[in-house]
Amino acid sequence: MIQRVITRATALESLSLRFLKVLLTLALMLSAPVPIRAQTKDDPRPASGQAALVLRDLQGREQDLRDYRGSIVLVNFWATWCVPCREEMPIFVSLQKRYAERGVRFIAVSIDDPKNKEAVSRFARDLGVNFPVWVGATIQEMRRLGLGEALPATAVVDREGRIVGRILGPVDKRDLTKRIRWLLNAPSPLVDKISEAVQDDAGNHSHPHDRQRESDDARDRNDEGDAAGPSHEGHEHGEEHQHGGVGMEGASLVPS
């Protein structure tokens, strides 16, 4: 009898030890730090404050918005069936031609079905699009960039890759030109210091940004295209601007 009790006690003790080992293992696993995956170029999730977009061009090559860092980029979402998109595209073509040498880049992002690549290509060819066309976008990409669910919609991205403006609905050429000029003439501390040192040595105190603004002003006065559409004085260049907007006249809702 005594031997039987001792055997049972030994068995219970062995079971308890195994149970404690399992609990200890689980506790160690739960308390271990979870590794955080480092962001790579293949990771479409944006870093804090950065705009991220990874799609393919008409040739099927992967394109990444982060590769445009250092340029001012205007990302326009459109579709072949969107009438306002067709009407505003010549504005982008004109401004791309005008500001390409100063580091301004336009990207036309189509939300058409990827199977309609030929229609997208024909649309771009007919309108003389002189900048990259990306395909395969969806409403999710528009939402991720804060552009809502209506076309057309345009994000303005600065040289650091940050979205500094959004235009919901068709753009106004004069307003968009002012946004671009503001970003082009925004002071860069390092460049300004070098420029000022050179000017002091040469005895020339005219700031390069001032000279460029004067040149832009003269060009704007001679640009007949800027005469079309109302002026929007007083808008902050970083604010969200609506010429159409979600569900408003002048914008086309994206079918779900």
Q: What is the fold's blueprint, element by element?
A:
Layout: H1 2-31, E1 54-57, E2 62-64, E3 72-78, H2 83-99, E4 104-110, H3 117-126, E5 133-135, H4 139-144, E6 150-151, E7 153-157, E8 163-168, H5 173-185, H6 189-202, H7 208-221, E9 240-242, E10 252-253
Parallel strand pairs: 3-4, 4-5, 8-9
Antiparallel strand pairs: 1-2, 1-5, 3-7, 6-10, 7-8
Shape descriptor: globular
Using the coordinates shown, work out and report the CATH topology of the domain at 54-170 and 232-253.
Glutaredoxin
Helix-strand string: HEEEHEHEHEEEHHHEE
Compute the CA-based radius of gyration: 29 Å
Strand order within the widest beta sheet: 2-1-5-4-3-7-8-9
- Determine and state the CATH class of the domain at 54-170 and 232-253: Alpha Beta
Task: Label the CATH architecture of the domain at 54-170 and 232-253.
Answer: 3-Layer(aba) Sandwich
Q: Please summarize the sheet with the most strands.
A: 8 strands, mixed
Q: Give the N-to-C terminal Cα separation.
A: 78 Å
The average pLDDT is 74
Instruction: Tell me how many strands there are.
Output: 10
CATH superfamily of the domain at 54-170 and 232-253: Glutaredoxin
Helix content: 40-55%
- Low-pLDDT runs of 5+ residues are 26-48, 189-195, 224-239, 243-249
How much of the sequence is in beta strands?
Answer: 15-25%
Count of helix runs: 7
SS class? alpha/beta
